[in-house]
């Protein structure tokens, strides 16, 4: 008769051989250990990003029936966004006249235009600063880097609010100019229009563009620049033929890092945009809030994301980003 | 910087750029001491009134408490997840490392309103979870993990891998090597990541706006005050405190993480 303790020992030794075998597999396969280490983070990202985004896509195929959610599959929300208008249309007078509900696509186009101008401004302003950091600053580089990064981490809401204070009807610019006697009554065109949104976006995202450009400038092999000089290129020619092309990967990354999030910005248009400066984010918010049509809101979000993704891919293809990366510049 | 650099037009540009970067933000503290409810020139006089009102505001203090609690928890979880991921991608040769890192970095480029509504949809329409500080926390972890990972990857790449191998060769196990070698060397990065994640969560508005239940956070409180013109001076006082506080934390964090790290390393780009 086998005693209980003996049985337990046998069980334990069996389990320990199994355990050691599993351990052996992990020890032999380095990649497996790596994946095991990565799995908690990956699971959280899948569960909190991919699953919710999938839910958003599913929701966009449902419909809102007053207070009830109708869970039958339908393309009705997308049809509403892209539905064509009936009757004669004058495309020259109104390019969006072709659509029955032009507001969604028109607003998306307007958001893209506004964020594109802000992005161009940000990158053009950031480039000389990044150049200065990479090529001119020799001492106290850390201090300069910190000075540039710190504003980016401070409250976005407060930075946008500061612009509301600056541009407002009784704001800093108006009251300043009036107390200097330069104007008699406040300028009304400063706040609540697409331009004020663009300026605010350009300021709020300024620091985000400098670092990627700086890193790609810093990586440039200085001997290439010397070679260009030795071969007779002046500073301007050298910049356009060597420095600028080599810094393109960072500049492109900076462009996308600013462009994509600003298209969907909600805070800036809400605080400084007024009615003429609203963007697609405001429509999405109102569809999920007051308008109580979450499925249509989901469809508008998905459509916007798809169009932005297509634009980004077209842009990367146009500038030959893939080739640039393969060349390892 | 040499004397020649000071006359450089680029140096002048850099100074103007910094003024552009800091100018608008510095107006908040300036007007927070102004004795007028209008935020306008000329300045009327010096006062601490707005700061006095601020500390006596109960709902503000509740929101502050929520934000601090949330920030601490989010920073701890995100940095923890960041350490795992950063160690995995820097120390192991993983097939498919590129796409996996890309997936973890995705929240950096997806507009936060999309992340916000996606989390709102899964919570309310699919799982029937009540909105609370926990749902805001989930959203904040999502956007903090990419930053934590970037900070930690550049830190882990910054020191010599041989140190860990030497520890193994001298007979330490994987676990004690982590605690006795990797952890102390990565500590500045870990502290930097904790501080950075705390600030991100503390200042984040859009996700909190969509995912908040009855308990508000500080940015939501500020946003709700902006509709009332007579409450603006209070917002200025509160905003100034937040700015000073964030400046200190972020400066410390940036100093910790950039010290002794090659500027061209991957994580330095953010």
Low-confidence stretches of chain A: none
Number of domains of chain A: 2
Q: Beta-strand percentage of chain A? A: under 5%
Average residue-wise pLDDT of chain B: 85
Give the CATH topology of the largest domain in chain A. Answer: MetI-like fold
> What distance lies between the first and last C-alpha atoms of chain B, to the nearest angstrom?
25 Å
CATH class of the largest domain in chain A: Mainly Alpha
Radius of gyration of chain B: 22 Å
Quaternary form = heterodimer
Average pLDDT metric of chain A: 85
* Rough outline of chain B: globular
Quickly give the structural class of chain B.
Answer: mainly alpha
Poorly predicted regions of chain B are: none
Radius of gyration of chain A: 28 Å
**How far do the termini of chain A sit from each other?**
75 Å
Give the largest interface pair and sizes: A-B, 95 and 92 residues
Continuous helix count of chain A? 16
The CATH superfamily name of chain B is MetI-like
With strands numbered from the N-terminus, the spatial order across the biggest sheet of chain A is 1-2
Order of helices and strands of chain A: HHEEHHHHHHHHHHHHHH
Strand content of chain B: under 5%
């Amino acid at each position: 008769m086998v005693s209980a303790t003996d049985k337990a020992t046998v069980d334990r030794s069996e389990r320990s051989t199994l355990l050691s075998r599993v351990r052996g597999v992990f020890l032999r396969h380095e990649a497996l250990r790596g994946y095991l280490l990565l799995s908690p983070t990956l699971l959280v990202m899948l569960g909190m990003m991919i699953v919710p985004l999938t839910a958003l896509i599913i929701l966009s195929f449902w419909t809102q029936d007053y207070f009830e959610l109708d869970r039958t599959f339908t393309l009705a929300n997308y049809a509403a966004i892209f539905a064509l208008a009936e009757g004669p249309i004058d495309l020259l007078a109104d390019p969006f006249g072709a659509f029955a509900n032009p507001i969604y696509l028109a607003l998306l186009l307007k958001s893209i235009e506004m964020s594109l101008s802000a992005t161009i401004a940000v990158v053009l302003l950031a480039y000389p600063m990044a150049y200065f950091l990479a090529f001119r600053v020799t001492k106290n580089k850390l201090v300069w880097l910190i000075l540039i990064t710190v504003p980016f981490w401070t409250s976005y809401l407060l930075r946008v609010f500061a612009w509301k204070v600056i541009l407002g009807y009784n704001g800093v610019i108006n009251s300043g100019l009036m107390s200097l006697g330069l104007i008699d009554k406040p300028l009304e065109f400063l706040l609540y229009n697409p331009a004020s949104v663009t300026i605010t976006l350009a300021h709020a995202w300024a620091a985000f563009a400098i670092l990627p450009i700086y890193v790609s400038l810093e990586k440039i092999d200085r001997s290439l620049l010397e070679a260009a000089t030795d071969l007779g290129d002046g500073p301007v020619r050298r910049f356009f033929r060597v420095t600028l092309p080599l810094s393109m990967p960072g500049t492109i990354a900076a462009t996308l890092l600013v462009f994509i999030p600003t298209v969907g910005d909600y805070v800036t248009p809400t605080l400084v945009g007024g009615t003429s400066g609203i963007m697609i984010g405001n429509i999405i918010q109102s569809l999920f809030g007051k308008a109580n049509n979450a499925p249509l809101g989901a469809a508008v979000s998905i459509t916007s994301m798809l169009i932005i993704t297509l634009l980004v891919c077209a842009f990367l293809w146009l500038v030959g980003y893939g080739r640039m990366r393969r060349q390892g510049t | 910087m040499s004397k020649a650099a000071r006359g450089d037009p680029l140096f002048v540009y850099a100074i103007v750029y910094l003024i552009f970067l800091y100018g608008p933000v510095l107006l908040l503290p300036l007007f927070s001491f102004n004795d007028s409810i209008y935020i306008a020139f000329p300045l009327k006089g010096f006062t601490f009134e707005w700061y006095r009102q601020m500390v006596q505001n109960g709902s503000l203090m509740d929101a502050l408490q929520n934000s601090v609690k949330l920030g601490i928890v989010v920073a701890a979880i995100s940095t923890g997840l960041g350490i795992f991921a950063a160690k995995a991608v820097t120390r192991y040769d993983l097939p498919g490392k590129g796409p996996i890192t890309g997936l973890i970095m995705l929240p950096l480029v997806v507009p936060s309103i999309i992340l916000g509504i996606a989390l709102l949809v899964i919570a309310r329409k699919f799982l029937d979870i009540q909105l609370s500080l926990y749902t805001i926390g989930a959203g904040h972890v999502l956007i903090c993990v990419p930053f934590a990972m970037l900070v930690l990857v550049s830190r882990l790449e910054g020191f010599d891998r041989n140190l860990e191998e030497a520890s193994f060769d001298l007979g330490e196990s994987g676990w004690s090597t982590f605690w006795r070698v990797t952890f102390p060397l990565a500590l500045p990065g870990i502290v930097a990541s904790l501080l950075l994640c705390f600030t991100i969560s503390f200042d984040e508005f859009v996700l909190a706006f969509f995912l908040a239940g009855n308990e508000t956070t500080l940015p939501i409180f500020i946003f709700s005050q902006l509709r009332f013109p007579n409450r603006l001076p209070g917002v200025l006082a509160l905003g100034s405190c937040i700015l000073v506080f964030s400046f200190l934390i972020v400066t410390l964090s940036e100093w910790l993480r950039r010290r002794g790290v090659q500027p061209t390393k991957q994580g330095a780009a953010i």
